[in-house]
Amino acid sequence: MKFGTDTRVRNPARLRAFVAAGLLAAVPAMPATALATTLTTEERAKRGGEVVRSLNNGQPQPTLERMREEFPFLAEATEAYALGDVWSRPGLDTRTRQLAAVAAFAAIGETAFMKIHASYALNAGVSEDELKEIVYMVTVPAGFPRAISAARTLSDLFAERRPSAEGNTP
Q: A GO molecular-function term, please (predicted)?
């Protein structure tokens, strides 16, 4: 058989069915007890709010609060799912999770979100030099334009967080 001539793989419907069957076989069934302990959206959102305050030195996240005013469903979904379900999962410490978020947002060019998570990373003990290394790493998968944009954003963040000339701290 020549490479690429197997018609069993070329049939899109058959391929989708094969992939779906494989995925279903790989995912264990949810035990009945797990259904009884599922959190409500309100409980998940509360947990998400706790995550934000832990990342942001006890303060609410301004972008999320602004979103809550005009797009309450989107804010609730962000708080309940992204923060309450995903961000609160075990498996990664806060520091590692923030470095991953900074790298991901920098790589896709979302510098506003990258800045928020870089600030959380600094709050979690990540150094400026470590964040700079993340930007250097972004050049490989995402290219220089995105890395340069991320670098500018980090420079702005570092300047905002440094004590001012009058001796005041941010």
A: peroxiredoxin activity
